[in-house]
Each structure stands twice: as structure tokens, then as C-alpha cells.
Amino acid sequence: MERSLTGSSNVTPLRGNDTPTRVPPHNYEAEQALLGAILANNRVFDKVNEFLRKEHFADALHGRIYDAAGTLIQRGQIANFLTLRNLFDQDPALVEAGGAKYLARLENAVVTIINAEDYGHTIHDLFLRRELINLGEEVVNEAFSYDLDLPALEQIETAEQRLYQLAETGQIEGVLRPLNDAMTAAIQIAELAFKRDSHVTGVTTGLHDLDRKLGGLHNSDLVILAARPSMGKTALATNIAFNAARAYREDIVEGKPKAVDGAVVGFFSLEMSSEQLATRMLAEQAEVPSEKIRKGELISSDFDRVLSVSHELEHLNFFIDDTPALSIAALRTRARRLKRTHGLGLLVVDYLQLLSPSGKNRQDNRVQEVSEITRGLKTLAKELDVVALGALYRGFESHPLRHYLSVQ
């Protein structure tokens, strides 16, 4: 049966009880208009190629036509009715739609190419809506399916992560910036660093030699502190976190509060409880052995120092999560929630091998699991400064973490 250029109707069919059913949102006419504009003027493809893919089309045939046209255009060839007909002569879907005549009608029916980019945005928006519907249906079905290995809270975290990933695919704005804008931003960063006591462009670690080498901790950086057990990884991480939280200062920038020094810190302690971590921080800052604090062997002067340090720690923007066996999806969810509510700027994970992959991504291969965890942390590092601790053991050459470190 020959296909009409107007596409199928959007009128919803009726069931026997006259209850209208809802069909996934689509606009075949917009798809046809865009394809016709591309075939009539190949330059149109450059306007939508950055954000539009063949899978975004509701009609799979339209997606294949778009993909084939794009392949020819990117090779420097002309994509039109004549060059595409040979590719689709044996395509059953195109034959059913009317054969090569359908391509010819697409090209000849174009009235204007001015709105072609708007058609592309419409197609992409409808694709996101269909994906959102599919995601909602999957979340509902998984919730109905009772699985002991997939508790409700983990399902919520997984759903939130998938929703976030869908939101990321919806970001179609161009990222090209004029050099003038980039230079202005660079000068602002330099001015901010000049005014800071630490004189670094990123979040200060409080360790002068390290700040001089790194320039502080920066967004998009995933810093891994890797060493053998009992080498001081946690002590170093807590010192960095404490110094960043102590240096935290915010100001009103463009009408909104913004951190101008230091950072709000989120410390995910998968090995120690929050009380143990707080005790270690007290001991480090008061310069008192933690064993004496735990055993109550402090002399009067030591206790005064501990008490003074505790008053300072109480007012820091420092948050601890000591949930054991936390999944990478749950960590991302909690970190983003903390960023929304308190402006989280530095995330510390102690330590990454104690994180578990997201529900369905658990695998027998530990190398792949650690790779998935580190990729998740790297994605999160695009929004925050992330410091992750990694424990190294004997036989490091065969350790899963080495695979990640060797490719960075």
C-alpha cells in the first residue's frame, strides 16, 4: 500500500468500551518535511546533525532515509532522490511505502527549508517524550515485579539515574563559545584565585605543595589516592576535606550565592562509621592520638584542644554518609541531592572498591565492575570535584584498579 505524505493520523483509536487509547507522541509530517528539506538542500543536514539521530524518528523508515542521506553528505556526495533510490530499491519498507516514488515525493513536496531546524527540534522532543513514557512503563513493571535482589530503594535510585541520563540526552544546545567569552571567564578565575588566601584556581587542599602542583581541585577532575593498606590514605583524604570545608566562603555572584573559596564537602565513608571518622578528624586536628580519645586517656590540656577543635568542626559544611555497600547509582543520587540542597562542591569516597555496581550491572568480572564504578565517578566529576581512595594489595599488577589507572 502506497504511503501518503501526510503520514498516519494522530486520532486515537477506540476500544470496545469507547475508552480512547493513547499512542506514543509522534509527528510523521514533521519527519517528512525535514527529510524533504534535506533532499532538496543538503546543507539543511548540517543544521540538525549535531543533535538528531536516526533512532529519534518515530518512523523507522524515515530514520533509515535520514541516516543514508547523512552518510552520503558526510562523504561529500549529493543526497537526493536519484542517489538514494538504489540504496532502497530492495528495502521492503520503502517498497510498501510506494517505492522510489516515495523518495521523489518527499523531495518534490518541499515548500520551504526555513523551518527545517524547527522540524528537527520537534522530532527530538517527541523522541524524548516517547523515551520518558517507556521509562515510566519499565519503572512501573519493575515495581510490580517482586525481586529480593532488587529492593525498592535500589529501584528508586536506578530509576532516578536513568531519568538523569535521559535528561542528559536532551541537552542539545551547542557548546561552541566565542574566544572572547572564554577569555573573560579565564580572567575571572584568575582574579578569584588572586583574591583567595590559597591563591589557587580550584578548591584548596590546604596542602601548599600539593596546591602548587595541582592548582587546587577542579571540576571534571577525578583524583584517586591509591596506596597499600595502612599507608595514610584516609588521613590524607580527611585532611583535604577538612581544609576545603574550613576554607569555604560564599558570595553573591549575579544575584545567586556561589562558593568563592573552599567547598561544601560530602564524605562517603564506606569503611568507617561516621563516629569513627569524626574521631579521626578530631585526633588529627587536635594532634592527639585517636587511641587516647577512644580509651579516655586524655589529660586536661589534650581534652581542651579536642573540645576547641570540636566546636570548629561543628560549624563546617561537612556531611558524612556511612552507608555500607553503597551502589554507584545510590552515591550519584545522594551526591546530586546534596548538591541541590547544600551546594556540594567536593566529594570524597573512602574507598571505591567498597562501592557496588548498579543493580543490573553486577558482573562476575571484577575488572569490569571497577571500570563501571570509576566511569560513574568520572561522570559525577563533571559536576563536582571528586577524590576517591583506592586500596592496593600485593599483586597490584593483576588488581582491577590497575586497569583503570593504566588507561588514565
Describe this entry's structure for a reader:
- The structure is a single chain.
- With 408 residues, the chain is of the alpha/beta class.
- The protein has two domains: 28-169, DNAb Helicase, Chain A (Orthogonal Bundle); 198-406, Rossmann fold (3-Layer(aba) Sandwich).
- The protein is 52% helix and 10% strand.
- It is built from 17 helices and seven strands.
- The protein has helices at 28-40, 44-48, 60-74, 81-88, 92-97, 100-108, 116-144, 152-169, 179-195, 208-214, 233-246, 274-286, 290-295, 300-314, 328-342, 366-381, 400-406; strands at 222-227, 249-253, 256-261, 264-269, 318-321, 344-350, 385-391.
- The strands form two sheets. A five-stranded parallel sheet has the order 1-7-6-4-5, sandwiched between helices. A two-stranded antiparallel sheet has the order 2-3.
- Helix 4 (81-88) packs antiparallel against helix 6.
In short:
This protein is of the alpha/beta class. The chain has helices at residues 28-40, 44-48, 60-74, 81-88, 92-97, 100-108, 116-144, 152-169, 179-195, 208-214, 233-246, 274-286, 290-295, 300-314, 328-342, 366-381, 400-406, and strands at 222-227, 249-253, 256-261, 264-269, 318-321, 344-350, 385-391.
